[in-house]
Amino acid sequence: FVQALDRYFTGLADWQMPSGGLFIWLKLKHLIDTRLLLPEAVRRGVAFMPGEAFFAERLNACGAIRLNFSHASIEQIDSGLAILAELVAQAGSGEG
Q1: d(CA 1, CA 7)
Q2: Angle, to 10 degrees, between the axis of helix 2-9 and the axis of helix 74-93?
Q3: What is the pLDDT of residues 12-67, one digit of tens each?
């Protein structure tokens, strides 16, 4: 999973290798509302948890995504992160 993040998200986000658990928290380089990415991601077969749901205060945009890596195959990880990176890049450039 982290190798695929390196491949697709370098320059788009920062993250740390978790020492345990089921999730990786991505902090995007651009402050975007990740809730707006979710419908298109799901339409393309990719699910993630928008970071805005994890903040106590209401945010218009936090630029964070929580990703689960516990049950996807290597092929699903690779294609899913490629799709998600494309959506993040488009949103960060103002195209999305």
Answers
A1: 10
A2: 30
A3: 999 998 888 899 999 999 999 999 999 999 999 999 999 998 888 877 788 999 99
Q: Are 69 and 23 in contact (CB under 8 A)?
A: yes
Element (H, E) at 49: strand 49-50
Q: What share of the chain is helix, strand, coil (3-state, %, to 5)?
A: 45, 15, 40
Half-sphere exposure (Cβ direction) of 35: Cα atoms closer than 13 Å: 8
Task: Read off the pLDDT of each residue in 73-95 and give the average, rounded to a whole number.
Answer: 92
The SS3 call for residue 59 is: coil
Cα 95 to Cα 74: distance, rounded to the nearest angstrom: 29
Which 3 state secondary structure label does DSSP give 11? coil
Total residue count of the chain as it appears in this document: 96
| Residue 28 host element (H or E) | strand 23-28
DSSP of 66-78: EEE-SS--HHHHH
